[in-house]
Write a structure and sequence with these properties.
alpha+beta, Helix Hairpins, Heat Shock Protein 90, 3 domains, 5-stranded antiparallel beta sheet, rod-shaped, phosphoprotein, transferase
């Protein structure tokens, strides 16, 4: 079964995702710029370290530049620069250079220097050709390993200090980053949760309206633009309340005004019967009595429906065995329709809390319809379905079309000819059943039965 997603969490994670994407893009750009900055800083430092070496090299006669073993003063300068700048500095030939750069990738050329980066540890190396020779000055970052044997005690101490500082800096940066992320997440949660609370006020009000309490209003002290939405909701509820109040007054007025002349007609016909006894044998007299009874029934059902729909009837909640109620109503209808059979399938007794009088009215209406339109047989069942009680009544009549099933609950609705006015009724019975079922938080469903007739099911929650 498809599970609906929470708009609150969708919005929350969408905003967090957007912020995370922006942060990731910023980190990538920052890393690129930082790499460029590191390369420039490395080049600048290597130039400082190389300056005394290059100056000493250029002072040497050309003849001595082919034999590095005799360059003691140059070696001394190189050792001094290594201690001062913590670089690996050496002068090597072209053949050895290729081997040394085997695991390096070329980055850039700055001035007279070529900048390379090691493919594994990301250390940088600067390569510069020495004047009038086949030798190259290579200045590279040292692999920061305090345990390396070639490090002097001074360099080892420096590297150990740098490692501690880098670890402390990394730890501080991570803590600050995590703290900022946590703060952003909490602030977003509070802000979006505030929106959720504001929207929940609209939901609560709409639920009250669905229950018939149209006097409920939404607190319009909400941030823009939710305040406009709240005002629109309140205006709509006010108009609905006024419209329904007018309909309620009209329904009661019409029912009352119709009953007054009906009572007068019934009284007049009763007086005529006493004065002229022979009228009781006239067919027209019987038709008139029938029409009066139909009008009386119509007025009564209209008034009942109006009271149910406008919450005039207050439910009298009581606990009773709903399966026994179904069985009792079936036995009552059996006596009124001895020519048709009905079979009941039900589970053990089921206690239900609701208005027994209203539910009896609903079940009676369903049974009357079934007996009216059935050819010979009716099947009824009352069984527990999960946390609900499901009551189904089906007949073997002609049934109704799927299109008619969609409008059958509307008051005064007309369906197939086989279930039209010619067979009696005004199209109010099922509308009354639907109203009663909805007052008990249930639902009513229609389908065609296996025997070809109509199957009506009402589902009522037990909890």
């Amino acid at each position: 079964m498809f599970k609906k997603k929470s708009l609150f969490w969708q919005l929350y994670f969408s905003v967090l995702g957007a912020i995370a994407s922006i942060a990731l893009l910023f980190i990538v750009i920052w890393a690129y710029l930082n790499q460029q900055s590191d390369t420039d800083d490395f080049y600048r430092d290597t130039q400082y370290a190389a300056a005394p070496i290059l100056a000493a090299w250029n002072k040497q006669p050309v003849s001595s530049k082919t034999n590095l073993s005799q360059q003691d003063s140059l070696k001394k300068i190189i050792r001094q620069q290594i201690n001062d700048y913590s670089f690996r500095i050496e002068i090597i030939g072209s053949s050895e250079l290729e081997t040394r750069l085997e695991h390096f990738k070329f980055l850039n050329t700055i001035g007279q220097s070529r900048i390379y980066q090691h493919s594994e540890d990301d250390t940088l190396a600067s390569v510069q050709r020495l004047n009038n020779s086949q030798f190259w000055l290579v200045i590279a970052d040292l692999d920061v390993d305090p345990e390396a044997e070639e490090l002097t005690p001074i360099l080892r101490a420096q590297f150990e200090q740098e490692i501690r500082e880098d670890e402390l800096s990394a730890f501080t940066v991570n803590i600050v980053a995590l703290s900022l992320c946590a703060i952003i997440a909490i602030v977003l949660f509070l802000q979006i949760n505030g929106i959720k609370k504001h929207l929940s006020k609209l939901v609560v009000a709409s639920e009250q309206w669905a229950k018939g309490n149209l006097s409920a209003r939404v607190d319009d002290a909400l941030p823009i633009p939710l305040d406009n939405l709240a005002n629109s909701y309140n205006s709509m509820a006010k108009e609905l309340e006024r419209s329904i109040a007018e309909q309620k007054v009209m329904a009661h007025a019409i029912s009352h005004e119709l009953r007054t002349p009906l009572s007068k007609i019934q009284l007049a016909m009763s007086l005529l019967e006493r004065k002229f006894n022979f009228l009781t044998e006239e067919e027209l007299h019987h038709d008139l009595l029938k029409y009066v009874d139909e009008l009386e029934n119509l007025v009564s059902k209209t008034l009942t429906l109006a009271k149910l729909n406008h919450s005039v009837v207050n439910k009298k909640l009581e606990s009773f065995d709903i399966n026994q109620l179904v069985a009792d109503r079936i036995n009552e209808q059996k006596r009124l329709h001895p020519t048709k059979s009905i079979q009941l399938t039900s589970t053990k007794p089921v206690q239900f809390e609701g208005d027994q009088f209203l539910l009896q009215m609903a079940i009676d209406n369903l049974l009357k319809n079934a007996f009216k339109y059935a050819n010979k047989k009716i099947n009824a069942s009352a069984n527990i379905d999960g946390n609900d009680i499901k009551i189904t009544i089906e007949d073997d009549g002609k049934g109704i079309s799927p299109e008619s099933q969609e409008i059958i609950l509307m008051p005064f609705s007309r369906v197939d000819e086989s279930r039209g006015r010619d067979s009696g009724g005004f199209g109010l019975g099922l509308a009354i059943v639907d109203s009663i079922v909805r007052q008990h938080s249930g639902q009513i469903d229609f389908s065609n039965s296996s025997s070809g007739g109509l199957s009506v099911s009402i589902t009522l929650p037990l909890i």
